[in-house]
Amino acid sequence: MAVMRRVTAATCLSVWLSVSQLQCCRANELAIGVLMPLAWTQTQIATTVCFDLDVRKNFEPAIRARFGEPIVTIPNLHPGVANVTIRMGTTDMQPEVGVATAIDFMLGLDGELPISGLVGTVMSSISMPVAVVAAAQKVPQIAYGATSPSLSNKDNYPYFLRTISPDSIQALAFWNWLVTFEVPLAVCIYTTEPYGQGLFTAVQDLAKLDGQEDRIKGQGLRYMPQNYVFSEARATAELAKGLGSKFIFLMINSQVSNFLSVLRDLGMLGTGWQILSSTVSTQNLEEFPIGYMRWEDVSKGEKWPQFADIWTELTANDVVGPEARQRYKLDSLRVALEDMRSDVVTDSFFDDTSLLKTSESFLFDAGYTFILAINSLLNKGNNLTDIKGQLLLNEVCVADIQVGEWILRGRDEVCVDVII
Description:
Blueprint: H1 2-25, E1 30-36, H2 43-57, H3 61-67, E2 84-90, H4 95-107, E3 115-119, H5 124-137, E4 141-143, E5 160-162, H6 167-180, E6 186-191, H7 194-209, E7 216-221, H8 230-241, E8 247-251, H9 256-265, E9 274-277, E10 292-294, H10 304-313, H11 316-320, H12 322-328, H13 358-379, H14 389-398, E11 401-403, E12 406-408
Helix pairs in contact: 2-3, 2-13, 4-5, 6-7, 8-9
């Protein structure tokens, strides 16, 4: 046993020395991590590559020659920006995987330089525990899809920001819709996790504020991102059906198409019913009958056509080829790309922009938020190694960062418009 202790101590010392040497060798670098739900889609890998390429257009002529002028021309560009590196990680749509990857990023347990900033994630159920870790490690986190109103609590999540509006905005849209169309009662079917519960609670609060809480009823649906149990979903839908209204608000975080098929089987998706879905639903409206509606975030600003131009010039090799795998550490993902349930990146991804959803624009914006803040701090005389923690958070929060019509208004966390 004593020998085992000595070996373990020696091994730990060896690991500590190697990490220390690595950090010493990279003293003039700054790392940003991007955390994505790659089990859902791999388009966000390509979006991150687009963001990185656009930054590099500012100082790499070869990239500018191939892809055109930068979407964002970095003002008073500091040469140190060229030493900012990007690496990607997956949540696999599971909180434990997301938190483990975030810890690897922040502590350098993946053998790389510890990150100074984190972009991600999409889902509130994952962003919340990650935000707790980010606060403990003092790593600013900018999400591009996590919308739970609870994340706006700066006492609980002091290092959390986002480029997408919180669900308090979407809840107001739901409530105003109900009031405008004089709907006497709506039934909210929501997933029992932070996104669905948060959105339902926000709508409930608005109803109570107006003294009309009787106009909203709720029915919870167990969150099933991996293994969908249709019999359980059917039982939930039948309970909702018995609550006395044919106006249904859907607040479901995943597997929306599966639940809609359940509603169709029960005769709740068609004549005589009105379904209004939250922004998570990405189904094509043409697939469903009259009576199905959904909210959609506005995520295309005046620079969107320039982003589309980069997107359609990409190839699979740019995104998942050997050089990209090395640059973005794609072979270090906790779940290998080849083992993921989502479609692998191919050249056909870039035939047009049909695969792009709302979150891709907000991811691009989140990445540039960090780049512009880092550039500003470099120009103020800070070293890359010092740009982290409260200093970086303050630069992102205190001053409005403006590019075109896009404004991230500090701690308000709301993107009034977007870069792309």
